[in-house]
Amino acid sequence: MLKWFRTQKTKSEPPVAEVIEDFSNPDEVFSYFTAKTGITFEQKKSITATKLAHFARDRGYASYASLLNALRREEPVMEALVNFLTVNETYFFREMGQIEYIARHAASSRFGARILCAPGSTGEEPYTIAIALSEAGADMSRIEIVSIDINTEAIERARSGLYSKRSLHRLSDTLIDRYFDPEGEKYRIRDSIRSHVRFEAMNVFDPQMKRLGTFDYLLSRNMLIYFDPPTVHAAIRALCALAKGPKSLFFFGHADIHSTPSELNEHYTDGVKYYTVRS
After folding, report:
1. Closest CA to 192 of 261, 267, 260, 133
2. Chunked in runs of 10, what are the mean pLDDT values of the chain (279 residues)?
3. Contact 189, 179 (CB under 8 A)
4. Domain 96-277 carries which CATH code?
5. Which pTM value belongs to this model?
């Protein structure tokens, strides 16, 4: 038997508002990011704007304005953006002239050494310094290396001490066997080196930097290139505050400093450029 059903009328649903994207002007996001981190993107503004738009879309924001509101309200969003925009590829035994100089200088000291890497990224540089010191015959019980970075994901990778073969391509098989243990297709740095390096998620402008103490050697390679001139001087002043005294040595990347800052004296020894605090 056929049954006939009267179709019930349903209330019409309100139309869904169309989401209109607006990624036309990232300047306010750039300004906020620079104010928080000191990092500028003037040389890569177009590329970084595209990356910002991808970051926003992936997290459900339809405009730079809505992203900016989230950055102001939610610390995890800001942390995620910092991690997203500050990923740098590095490797062990990179630009060794300065590091070998530090190793020779520190190994000959009977007082040991405290060394700062700012930034230390995913750990290759501070671990390289520790290996170089060990190879130079330093008393490792008197060595402490502190590595900071604004990127929390980089800090976690550094603490794990696990690296690909590609990161170790500058090391001889002898050094790899001496300082790393294979884990599958990767290599984990041994505790004999890792125990001398401490990693902190921190910005060079963070007031908490003071709790790190003072240092004999301060490396800041390839960080200042991301700052405008006033921020470069602010970063140098922040680093100077961490020097033990006039004998502390500062090392920067080749492109970091174009002229000697007023806060520092410039020196050359054995073909290596370094700086000391101007008295």
Report:
1. 133
2. 42 55 87 88 83 88 91 89 81 94 93 95 97 96 96 95 95 97 97 96 92 97 90 94 96 90 93 92
3. yes
4. 3.40.50.150
5. 0.83
